[in-house]
Amino acid sequence: MKINMQNRIDHLFERKQKNILSIFLTAGYPNLTDTLPIIKILDTTEVDLLEIGIPFSDPIADGPIIQQSSMTALNNGTTLKVMFEQLKDLRKITQLPILLMGYLNSVMQYGVEPFYKNCHESGIDGVILPDLPLDEFDTVHKPLSEKYNIKVALIISPLTPVSRIKAIDERSSGFLYLVSSNSTTGNFKTNTINLNESLKHITSLPLKNKILIGFGIKGQKEFSEACEVANGAIIGSSFVNLLGNSTDLQKDIPEFISKIKEPIKTIQS
Amino acid sequence: MATNKFNVNDQGYYGEYGGAYIPEILFNNVEELKNNYLQIMESDSFKNEFEDLLKNYVGRPTPLYHAKNLSAQFNTTIYLKREDLNHTGAHKINNALGQILLAKRLGKKRIIAETGAGQHGVATATACALMGLECIIYMGEIDIERQAPNVARMNLLGATVVAALSGSRTLKDATNEAIRDWINNTETTYYIIGSVVGPHPYPDMVARFQSVISKEMKSQLLQRVGKENPDYVIACVGGGSNAAGAFYHYLDNEEVQLIGVEASGKGIDTGHTAATLTIGKPGIIHGSKTYLMQNEDGQITEPYSLSAGLDYPGIGPIHSFLHDVKRAKYLHVTDAEAMHAVVNLTQKEGIIPALESAHALAVLSKLNFKENEIVVVNLSGRGDKDLNTYINYLNENKHAK
């Protein structure tokens, strides 16, 4: 098999290195067939990157909002098989770079090679697997993801030692996912990104990958702060919360995105 | 000391099982523990303090009791390892004290733990009271209802009991909540896992703390029957800590048959079961690669057992490995069979066992022993906490008999 098309994530970072906004949504939420229509709306906004969450019964790194959305998505009948079935039409509606994010057990049970193969066939550009150990990345995931031209964005935290950050950066592709603070997703209580010296310290290291900051990025304020030290940031729980509460996604999604993006554009112009 | 043939390797795996499948945020905590636990556990100051507590606080060694009436019933020689006589009523205290001494040496001030039946929660709350440390126990909402006496104990001991309201609201979900707490409080908090589950080094560390069980069995058997090795060691398995402790020093003595007993709940084929090795498949749960109960999509399914301590969809990676390489044999027992064993032991020997431990006793009638064989059953806990369950079950099934 020969796969040499340029990956959309690489293409994005070639064009753009600042204020990158990535949005996370749970697949099959709020309704089973909502994933593609939501992506279609997002495609009309100034979002740069998307992450589609694979719902899992026991998401240990996630706070209540994503837990709840995962449970609803599973009750709706979402499975990885159903997701790939739905994603067949993905590239008819958007050319945004898109990653799948999920827990390793889902991938293991689906089969690691079929997973990467189907990602490729659906036009998925990368994956994020928060509980994938580095040694298993080396032995199993690196060769298969490269075979199918799928980026594996690895995660670092403010507590990751510098030597390990370098080892993770060496292996990571697409970008490096920097967790903003030591917390589960959607924990907005202790957000002090701007003051966090350890984040600045990390983002000033000479690293191969671009850095996106995730976890605890609630809205415009946190996004702007994150963009001061990194290439961009990821909004998950806040957006999933909107999906769960909105009665007019067609209107609310573009509004949500422009609230985050507008002030930055104003400052720049 | 066990060799590596049946034990954990340097990378933290038992064969293909184990490892540390954790979010990066937990890496430092797990790494700190991995780099220090053996050195700390083998230091003289640790050993002295731990052994002193086991002897004078817990009441070890626990008796190895020759159950003559039970022996006559099953026409063999049965010994009960009386872990039920430990302070706090089960083997769980061995591990809780060991880990709290470790936590203190790592400078942690805040202790969290998960609990199912409440035995590990009580043991941890006890250890925290003794050491003056803050204690938060996560317990499924359903388990809080069915193990009320243990909840009262934990509260009295000064612990905060937090109800896990997600998922099936039992042990699995209490563990999820404890892990989430740990992620949010990595720098201050030490997580005392109660079984041989979780990311490496927990399964090995907990097995080592519980290995005092088989260490004592060996010396007690030598004294009583002139040899260290019995023909059988039998223990119940939820996560599998009491079994790991009872098997530990026998792993390399391959003439000793090791029998683990899982809870099949209402029956293996009923959909209401917790017999992980029988109906599960390898996957990842709570940071470890091991057998777990899951559907085709890899979603963890809800276990069921009348016994809260065995009501868990995973199993320690050591047991997945011992099962695959056939070093240990794993049987399963229904709620009804376990209840029968409760009544039998109570009325034959005057010992009320915990419902978990009764699963181990229930296989005595399923195995064909020879008269001169020596069988050790690890009686992991006492039944005080289960009295309500016993009374209700017997009332409900009075007419069914």
Describe the structure.
- The complex is a heterodimer of chains A (269) and B (401).
- Chain A has 269 residues and is an alpha/beta fold.
- Helices cover 48% and strands 13% of the residues of chain A.
- Chain A has helices spanning 8-15, 35-43, 64-75, 80-87, 90-93, 104-110, 112-122, 134-147, 162-171, 197-203, 220-229, 237-245, 249-268, and strands at residues 20-26, 49-53, 98-101, 126-128, 151-152, 154-156, 176-179, 211-214, 232-235.
- Chain A has a nine-stranded parallel sheet with strand order 5-4-3-2-1-9-8-7-6.
- Chain B is an alpha/beta fold and 401 residues long.
- Chain B has two domains: 14-54 and 92-205, Rossmann fold; 59-89 and 211-396, Rossmann fold (3-Layer(aba) Sandwich), CATH 3.40.50.1100.
- Chain B has 16 helices and 14 strands.
- In chain B, the strands form four sheets. In chain B, strands 3-4-14-9-10-13 form a six-stranded mixed sheet, sandwiched between helices.
- In chain B, strand 1 and strand 2 (17-18) form a beta hairpin.
- Chain B is globular.
- Chain B starts with 12 loop residues before the first strand and ends in a 5-residue tail after the last helix.
- In chain B, 61% of the residues are buried.
- The model of chain B has no long low-confidence stretch (mean pLDDT 96).
- The A-B interface holds A 56-58, 60-63, 67, 71, 74, 79-81, 103-110, 130-133, 135-136, 155-157, 159-161, 164, 168, 179, 182-184, 187 and B 11, 19-25, 27-28, 166-167, 172, 176, 179-180, 183-187, 281-287, 294, 296-300.
